[in-house]
Amino acid sequence: MSQTLPRLFANILVSGTVGPATFYTFILGMLATGVGVLVVVLRVIVGDWIERTRCRNWPTVSAVVDIASVAYCEPDSLLPPLKASSYNRYYKVTLTYIYHYPDEQMGDYSRDFGSKENAEAWANSYKGETVKVHVDPRDPTRSVLREEDL
Q1: For residue range 16-73, what is the model confidence (pLDDT) as tens digits?
Q2: b/e per residue 15-48 (b: at least 16 CB within 10 A)
Q3: Residue 128 falls in which region: left (phi positive, over 0), alpha (psi -120 to 50) or beta
Q4: Fewer Cβ atoms within 10 A, N terminus or C terminus of the chain?
Q5: Are 62 and 100 in contact (CB under 8 A)?
Q6: Where do the structural domains in the chain lie, given as residue ranges?
């Protein structure tokens, strides 16, 4: 029995003819998985870049940070969060702001931190502060607080 399993693997690797899951099928499956992961990562990166550059030309208005909350988070998957500074856990700070364009509207901005102390210090520094937000002229309910504007 101990000789059978190594021979089976050797057969698959050398000839690729044992069963439906051949060596070439395995390689193609791994390549397809790699391409899929790459597409998802690039979509997130490109989507963030498009959002940041598109809103640059939107009109800006003053907004007041009304709520600054800190939440403890754990990753949902085996992959670490893209913007977290810790693989095991992180703290998400959400700044909720209010602006007038032309009516009262609300928006939020989130940022991840690796330690609770840093997250709370950063959140407290913006509570009640006035910030500049970019508002979509076609949809005033949509706004973006850019990191560069903090």
Answers
A1: 555 556 677 778 778 888 888 888 888 888 877 777 777 888 999 999 999 999 999 8
A2: eeebeeeebeeeeeeeeeeeeeeeeeeeeeeeee
A3: left
A4: N
A5: no
A6: 6-53, 59-149
